[in-house]
Amino acid sequence: MTDAPALESYIAARLAEPVAPDIARIADTLMARPGAVAVLFYGASLREADNARRSNAGPLDFYYLVDPQAIGLLGRMLPPDVTFLPEGPYGAKVAVMSLEAFSHRMGRHGLDTTLWARFSQPTRLVRVRDPDTARAVACAIAEGVRTARWWTAHLVPDAGIEPLADWSALYAFTYGAELRVERGDARAVAVTASEPAWYRDLATLAPLQDAPENVRRPARRSWARRRLAGKLLNLARLAKAATTYSGGVAYAIAKVERHSGRPVVLSAWQRRWPALAAPLVLWRLWREGRLR
Fold first, then answer.
1. How far is CA 220 from the centre of its chain?
2. Would residue 211 be called left, alpha or beta, if left means φ above 0 and alpha means ψ between -120 and 50 degrees?
3. Region of residue 65 (phi > 0: left; psi between -120 and 50: alpha; otherwise: beta)
4. 80: cis peptide before it, omega within 30°?
5. How far apart are CA 207 and CA 202, in angstroms?
6. Distance CA 217, CA 245 (A)
């Protein structure tokens, strides 16, 4: 069984680790807004802190949690809202959702796998409104870790032999439920190799439970539904972000070109109206196999 208090305490301690001053300044800017609850720093810009400051780096990645009344209707229907904050040398990509929505999406019964997969990886809670909110964030992420371990036990062949292999295999499954440019298996190995102690510690604090074959079969069928739903959700979010994220279309196209080694050819009207063209362009890239 998972030692819930120990897991939550470990995650809370890791969330509280310090960040660079430029990251803290961006978090301060976000926390000054009405309805702010917490600011999380995560993703490749945390894993590769030195590379994130190169001249060709993309924007830094933040999740910004707010009170429910600070979220518009579309943001409640299809979270998160994604915006661009022109802070620091390369700006920040900010995903916005309520703390309630954040916590709800960490459970294993929803179709959306993105959030628990993302936040079972190392994260920093850069700013938070109060200690109760900090505990709520840590508990939500701990639930995401438990969800990740449940799916590991039910999806990964020969799970339990080596923790890093388990986590890499799980992330390859979750990347397969998203629209991604890079290959999921290679990316998954790179993610777990960036901080192996984190994944080994989580494997100890949230050990795998037995999952006999008669339980695995329906879980695999359930995952197939999540794989389809996840790609559709990603497509909808990308189309939505094209209207809310300044420079988001250009950023996405540059990423596709960098990973595929081929230019993305746009017509004159697509270059002039990138937000309107985004759904068609994304569909074409998926059909060409450049989004998986």
1. 22
2. beta
3. beta
4. yes
5. 8
6. 40
Handedness of CA 175, 176, 182, 184 (dihedral sign): positive
| Residues whose CB is less than 8 angstroms from the CB of residue 259 and which lie 6 or more positions away in sequence, other chains included | 181, 182, 290
Q: What is the token pair recorded at 221?
A: 């069928």
pLDDT, block means (10 residues), the chain with 292 residues: 84 97 94 96 82 59 95 87 81 92 95 95 98 98 98 96 96 87 74 96 96 93 93 78 61 57 71 65 68 64
Tell me if 147 sits within 8 A of 106, measured CB to CB.
yes
Rounded-to-integer distance, Cα 120 and Cα 198, Å: 10
Contact 208, 153 (CB under 8 A): yes
Cα–Cα distance, 214 to 41 (Å, whole number): 40
How far, in Å, are 35, 42, 75, 147 from residue 117 at the CA level? 26, 12, 20, 9
Structure tokens at 145: 């870790």
